[in-house]
Amino acid sequence: MTTTDAAAEVVEVGPRDGYQGIKPFIPTEMKIDLLRRLVSSGLKRVEIGSFVSAAALPQLADTTEILAACDDIPGIIPQVLVPNEKYGRLALNAGSRFLAFVLSVSEAHNRNNVRRSPRESAEEYGRLLAAMPDDVDMRLNIATAFDCPFEGRVAEAETIALLDCLVPLRANIELCLCDTTGRASPDHVEHLFAACMQRFPQVKRWALHAHDTYGLGLANVHSAWRQGVRAFDASYAGLGGCPFAPGATGNVATEDVAWMFRRMGIDTGIDLETLIPVACDGAAIPGGLPGGRVRQALAAAAANAPCL
Length: 308
Prior knowledge:
By secondary structure, this protein is of the alpha/beta class. The chain has a single domain, classed as Aldolase class I (TIM Barrel). The protein has helices at 14-18, 28-40, 63-69, 85-93, 107-114, 118-131, 156-166, 186-199, 217-227, 254-263, 272-283, 294-301, and strands at 9-12, 45-50, 77-82, 98-104, 137-143, 147-148, 152-153, 174-178, 205-209, 231-234. An eight-stranded parallel β-sheet has the order 1-10-9-8-5-4-3-2. Strand 9, helix 9 and strand 10 form a beta-alpha-beta unit. The two termini are 33 Å apart.
């Protein structure tokens, strides 16, 4: 997490968020090969998987193996998602040095996702922090920060109230507000980040996790950038969608985010010409639901083979 104020860090979440809803199992060797190619395009921090129940998300059952393979991928910063204390400890035991703990503002979504209330998840987060070695980084994902698939729009006060419990536990983390359903609008994104940044000035690093379900993913990224956010989750080929949020399709596409920032003169370190062929292959994964626009536009402009 060393991005300067003039640059944007794109956190690639395709190998976790992009894959988790795909039913046919993607061979582990293929996942590792795609991971190498993503890093070769200039992406550094990659959410490579999640320590979760294999019965709930069988696609991610090989996360331990993929984490081990990262030792042979120069430059990668492997991040893993954990939904509770138990799986956080398993991730630490497997050698992970960058955890992303997720909990929801919405009671209904948190119970549907991890069978706990948000406050119970907050308590587990605190216990996990206490057990973490000093050399492990933590990212805190606040799901349904804007909207819930079951309860609708989430009041700003609810998100801030949960953060009131979480931020005092540790401020030197990255705090990510997640548009789980893709129903947030640019003004909502800008207003919530402004309110959170004002209330929690001790948080030095903010991030946005945007979905493009209703075509507002890039607009929301731009709004967050204008508010001072410098880290953005994205999924190559626009793959993704939360299995526990009905109707939430893919994340904003990595190539779309990289293209927008390049046109704005903002550095991401991503080489689009290298990324596009990987995104085309990602879009062709059986069972995947690709999204985004830049992949198709640049592949056509380069006279590449037809790209899904």
